[in-house]
């Protein structure tokens, strides 16, 4: 998956990235899913703050409810289950929530405030629907893991995605390659965010089931309607011609 | 394209709106007269003095249902719409363009080109559809003056002269407007546009329909995150929703004027559905307003093909689509603002 090559807007990406992003500049971690799906969609939602709460996201929210309840955190045997845990990373400049982080009691683990023993974190993200073909969910999960690593000074090898529709847990290994993609994606998002730049429409197949299509107007890309100026001129010219007849 | 849901019109003067679960309940006195699920509507137009409960308004904001209040006689009071001011970069860009003379003149020209083009086709249509009843010669003459106004705008490089041409064109158009009225000529006639107050039935009807169109335009602009008070054609004036007025201009002939004329020509509205007040002002009465609102809702659901996007949309969506195109132009996605051309 090549995330960086297609967008002209990224060509001016600065080579100097901050070591740490100030809190005010943190982006929503979950935005990486939008970004991976379509850079413009991410910009419309996060930069332009356009968001239509369509039926699909409402349904998603309802199913999400249970996972998102910090007070429902519990301990089961050797596993400590924390729900709805807020995580952040200064290096990535992101903040978000983990649906569930399972901590396994382990000698290799880290100490947690108010808990005896040592624990190894294992993030689990609940997803509406079924496993996707794109990398979006994996990137988000990996981003969460990187946050946890930074917060707890530890290393996390893997986590899991749980798909509600299929009730399947999918293991995700946090490879170097995946981590690099996360780093690059957020660096590019910060760059776009700072410039307040919304990438132009790239006609893609995803447009037809994109929840932002009515605000994005992918039709603007259709070859014939691309220049509004030419369109206006031709209509006016036509009107004058009719008059001559 | 986005689905257009229904509008709830509340015309009973004494009605009060409240929330029950996720429904809007319309009550008159102690009696609940209607109950409508909020999910099934996208706006509420309330012509009642009693208004609505804060709980309902809060829920409407949450659901993205806009609520507009009018006096029972149709004077616009206010509207509410959920969080729509988040797109701060868009508004900043809008203000920057509004301060830039050349950008202003180009956007203003788009609005006026749209207005003149559409005015002209209102006249042209009448010569085709009613050749035997109308003064074809006069309509053709006015139409050709409008055509040359279009040519003039092309050479305009400042908003001031665009405004000048617009004013002339409006006169040219209204000069032939009376020709469009085919029925009840004793009761419905048009000499000139009077607004404060409207002095004849046709003006009363036009005024009421313009209020409806303006409300739609303002909600549309707010809905896409633009500031309806900062315009390009209409200069800033405290309290004036200049950008709404800009957008109204291009839509007026095709959406409002034709609609008003058709109410008269099809005899959907009758002379006794108006009242005359002490100041000589003429207004629709209760029955008249009901007729207009019902017809307006019906018209809003009629499908048209948007000439630029080439997509079928209900005409009630036209203000929204134009607002969106303007927003996308301001954000740099297209190289000009394409007005809505009707033919
Ligand atoms: S409609 Fe297409 S281009 Fe627009 S945001 Fe959605 S996926 Fe991206």
From TrEMBL, chain A:
<dbReference type="InterPro" id="IPR013343">
    <property type="entry name" value="CRISPR-assoc_prot_Cas4"/>
</dbReference>
<feature type="domain" description="DUF83">
    <location>
        <begin position="30"/>
        <end position="217"/>
    </location>
</feature>
<keyword id="KW-0378">Hydrolase</keyword>
<dbReference type="Pfam" id="PF01930">
    <property type="entry name" value="Cas_Cas4"/>
</dbReference>
<keyword id="KW-0411">Iron-sulfur</keyword>
<keyword id="KW-0408">Iron</keyword>
<keyword id="KW-0051">Antiviral defense</keyword>
<protein>
    <recommendedName>
        <fullName>CRISPR-associated exonuclease Cas4</fullName>
        <ecNumber>3.1.12.1</ecNumber>
    </recommendedName>
</protein>
<keyword id="KW-0540">Nuclease</keyword>
<comment type="function">
    <text>CRISPR (clustered regularly interspaced short palindromic repeat) is an adaptive immune system that provides protection against mobile genetic elements (viruses, transposable elements and conjugative plasmids). CRISPR clusters contain sequences complementary to antecedent mobile elements and target invading nucleic acids. CRISPR clusters are transcribed and processed into CRISPR RNA (crRNA).</text>
</comment>
<keyword id="KW-0269">Exonuclease</keyword>
<dbReference type="InterPro" id="IPR022765">
    <property type="entry name" value="Dna2/Cas4_DUF83"/>
</dbReference>
<comment type="similarity">
    <text>Belongs to the CRISPR-associated exonuclease Cas4 family.</text>
</comment>
<keyword id="KW-0479">Metal-binding</keyword>
<dbReference type="InterPro" id="IPR011604">
    <property type="entry name" value="PDDEXK-like_dom_sf"/>
</dbReference>
<keyword id="KW-0464">Manganese</keyword>
<dbReference type="InterPro" id="IPR051827">
    <property type="entry name" value="Cas4_exonuclease"/>
</dbReference>
């Amino acid at each position: 998956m090549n995330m960086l090559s297609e967008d002209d807007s990224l060509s001016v990406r600065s080579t100097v990235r901050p070591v740490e992003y100030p809190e005010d500049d943190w982006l929503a971690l979950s935005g990486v899913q939008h970004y991976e799906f379509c850079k413009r969609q991410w910009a419309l939602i996060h930069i332009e703050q356009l968001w239509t709460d369509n039926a699909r996201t409402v349904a998603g929210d309802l199913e999400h409810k249970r996972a998102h309840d910090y007070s429902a955190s519990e301990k089961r045997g050797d596993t400590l289950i924390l729900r709805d845990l807020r995580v952040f990373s200064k290096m990535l400049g992101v903040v978000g929530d983990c649906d569930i982080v399972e901590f396994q009691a382990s000698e290799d683990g880290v100490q947690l405030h108010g808990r005896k023993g040592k624990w190894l974190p294992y993030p689990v993200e609940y997803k509406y629907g079924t496993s996707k073909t794109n990398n979006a969910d994996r990137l988000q999960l990996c981003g969460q893991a990187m946050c946890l690593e930074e917060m707890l000074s530890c290393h996390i090898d893997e986590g899991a995605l749980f798909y509600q529709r299929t009730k399947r847990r999918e293991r995700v290994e946090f490879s170097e390659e995946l981590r690099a993609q996360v780093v690059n994606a957020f660096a590019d998002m910060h760059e776009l965010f700072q410039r307040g730049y919304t990438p132009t429409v790239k006609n893609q197949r995803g447009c037809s089931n994109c929840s932002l299509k009515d605000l994005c107007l992918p039709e603007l890309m259709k070859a014939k309607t691309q220049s509004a100026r030419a369109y206006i001129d031709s209509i006016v010219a036509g009107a004058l011609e009719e008059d001559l007849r | 394209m986005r689905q257009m849901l229904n509008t709830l019109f509340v015309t009973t003067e004494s009605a009060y709106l409240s929330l029950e679960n996720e429904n809007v309940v319309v009550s008159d006195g102690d009696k609940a007269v209607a109950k409508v699920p909020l999910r099934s509507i996208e706006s509420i137009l309330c012509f009642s003095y009693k208004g609505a409960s804060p709980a309902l308004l809060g829920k409407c904001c949450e659901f993205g249902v806009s609520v507009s209040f009018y006096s029972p006689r149709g004077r616009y009071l206010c509207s509410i719409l959920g969080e729509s001011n988040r797109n701060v970069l868009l508004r900043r860009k809008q203000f920057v363009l509004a301060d830039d003379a050349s950008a202003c003149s180009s956007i203003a020209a788009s609005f006026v080109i749209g207005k003149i083009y559409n005015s002209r086709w209102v006249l042209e249509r009448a010569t085709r559809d009613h050749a035997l009843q109308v003064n074809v010669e006069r309509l053709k003459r006015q139409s050709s003056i409008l055509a040359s106004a279009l040519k003039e705008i092309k050479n305009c490089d400042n908003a001031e002269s665009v405004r000048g041409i617009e004013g002339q064109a409006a006169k040219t158009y209204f000069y032939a407007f009376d020709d469009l009225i085919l029925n009840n000529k004793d009761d419905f006639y048009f000499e000139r546009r009077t607004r404060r107050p409207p002095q004849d039935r046709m003006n009363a009807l036009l005024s009421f329909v313009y209020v409806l169109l303006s409300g739609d335009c303002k909600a549309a602009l707010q809905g896409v995150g633009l500031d309806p008070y900062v315009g390009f054609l209409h200069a800033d004036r405290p309290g004036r929703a200049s950008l709404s007025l800009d957008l109204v201009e291009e839509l007026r002939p095709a959406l409002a004027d034709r609609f008003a004329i058709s109410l008269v020509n099809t005899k959907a509205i009758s002379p006794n559905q108006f009242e005359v007040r002490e100041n000589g002002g003429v207004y629709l009465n209760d029955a008249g307003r009901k007729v207009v609102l019902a017809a307006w809702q019906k018209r809003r659901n009629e499908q048209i093909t948007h000439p630029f996007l080439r997509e079928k949309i209900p005409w009630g969506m036209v203000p929204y689509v134009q607002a969106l195109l303007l927003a996308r132009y301001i954000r740099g996605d297209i190289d000009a603002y394409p007005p809505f051309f009707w033919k």
